[in-house]
Amino acid sequence: MEEFINTVKERSDIYEVVSRYVPLTLKNGRFWACCPFHEEKTPSFSVSPDKGIFYCFGCHEGGNVFKFISKMEHVTYFEAVKLQAERLGIKIPSRKKTFAEIQDEQTKDALLKITSTAQNFYHNILMKSKEGEEGRKYLAARGISEKVIKDFQLGFAPDSWDALTKKIKAQGYSEKQLISAGIAVEKKNGGVYDRLRGRVIIPIFDISGKPVAFGGRILKVEENQPKYLNTPETEIFIKGKLLFALNKSSRAIISANEAIVVEGYMDAISLYSAGVENVVASLGTAFTEEQAKLLARYARKIIFCYDSDEAGQRATVRALPIMKNTGANVFILIIPDGKDPDEFVRKHGKDAFVRLLKNVTPVIEYLFQYKLNHTDYSTFAGKLQVLREMFPICLELKDSATQKNYLRKFSLTLVLDEGVIFEEWRKFLSRSPTNKNSPQKKFSTSKNSLIRQAGKSIIQKLWQEPEYLDYVKALTSKENFIKIHTEIINYIEKCYAEGRVPDDLTAEKELSAAANQEILNIAGMIEPQDSQILAFQDSLKLIRRVSLEKLLKQTLQDAGEFDKSGDSKNFAEKMQASLEIQKEIDNL
User: Fold this and answer.
1) Which of 2, 88, 366, 370 has the fewest CB neighbours in a 10 Å radius?
2) pLDDT of 222-254, one tens digit each?
3) CB within 8 Å of 351: residues ≥ 6 apart
4) What pairing do the DSSP bridges indicate for beta strands 199-205 and 155-157?
5) Both ends of the chain: CA-CA distance in Å?
């Protein structure tokens, strides 16, 4: 198998593969494009055909041809190898399947044929029969158009004990197979009957678009009758590994690089129907690690929009750490007035829902409010309990300035002196096993020393490839470097503008003695190309972050002065400005 992978890799031209998806432009020996994995206006995505790799300086995605295919096609690494082999006409090696594997395939194929027949049966009943009229009226009343009915292949189960089972048995399938597919229930005295009757049917498709299960929504809620009734887990359907509507919404999610996660089928269908198509539902079960990993393959920003009742809040709190473990940026959308997404979008429309999306809540703020709502913090012990539950979440934040801002927020909300808050925070850090990796430890070195080292890495890259100047200038100002590095960058910029390459001879004439000595020091830095790229990117982020932290500190000081003087207008403006700066720091 290793020989097969190497053969496919050797015969693959990464330029040819990437250019199928994005237009590439040659510049200074590399091909460039706007990154297909995140939104950007200035190209920072590079392809090096001689090395067979790609790298994005904006989102840090990089790797070989198989990594690129796996990202673009949303398949596993080995599936990407097989896909490329098929494109190149290279035969994929196969081993002889065992008898058990052949049997398993045959069983699953039979179940898929049964669920496919059931899906067509339910859909035809809804669309074409008199029995489906009640279902059509129900869906119309909920604003579900005929187009959406067809998109989701919605159906209707007649109020009959055996309408479906009789049809499928006539095709030669056994009662045991119908039970295994989840569409039939065994009678106590023998025989089977339809599991879903007198309900609107919502088919559940796997990511390839095959119907594997069904949900049924009763039209009139009756005593001892659940509003929703679902077919059970089977060999072709495991709830925790699928997301409802992902087969329909995957393109919209990729395009937006953002996914909205709701609780129920109708929430997802209503949002999709209203034009908010980047939505999935978690199948009414606890959000799982498998679902999180699946969703993270399609988008980096995930917005949970569960119901606002107690059950929905608990489900949200359980889901957040699972999703955050994938590295995704996670937020929460709180629907006003306790409404669910379905009710809100039907009443207020798409535009109102899109406005809500612009004000999503960060995880730490949602969890802080949740802790406040579920803790008696009128006592000092209660206040400390909230703090100790929030500190581990606060530690996950990317920089000390944001951490301190939230510590001050805890102080104001809990009516605790800042000194108490910061003393408890200090105690927590001293006990935390992750403290050695905390931002405080990472940046305990002098910031001037860090900025100097970062400047060296950036100049090393610019000296070799001046075309990166535009990228550096887009992220940070030259004034954020130490004085000697600003002098060198100005020289490189001048050379680039005049179409000449920076070199030691002209540098000696045009730069100060100190700047020339610094260039000699930088020239002595030896790093592999891959390490050099990472050092360049990390250095840019560090300089940008340090400058933003300074700006944040000054903005908060200004806000404090306005607050003391009673100038509420300027205080509010400065606080809003500080929030914008914090968001930018978080995005780094």
Assistant:
1) 2
2) 777 888 899 999 999 999 999 999 999 988 988
3) none
4) antiparallel
5) 40
Do residues 298 and 248 make contact, with C-beta atoms less than 8 angstroms apart?
no
What is residue 208's DSSP assignment? T
Cβ count within 10 A of residue 391: 21
Q: Which ranges of 498-528 does DSSP label H, i.e. alpha helix?
A: 504-510, 513-523
Say how many C-beta atoms besides its own lie within 10 A of residue 6's C-beta.
Answer: 10
The H or E element that residue 216 is part of is strand 211-218
d(CA 331, CA 260): 10
pLDDT one-digit tens code per residue, 369-392: 999 999 999 988 899 899 989 998
State whether residue 309 is helix, strand or coil. Answer: coil
Pairing of the two strands 30-33 and 25-27? antiparallel
Classify residue 331 by its DSSP letter. Answer: E
For residue 162, the one-letter residue type is D
What token pair was written down for 43? 């190209």
For the record, the structure tokens of 77 come out as: 């690494």
Exposed, middle or buried, 228 (CB in 10 Å: 0-12/13-18/19+)? middle
Q: What is the pLDDT of residue 86?
A: 87
In this predicted structure, the answer to whether residue 98 has a pLDDT above a threshold of 80 is yes
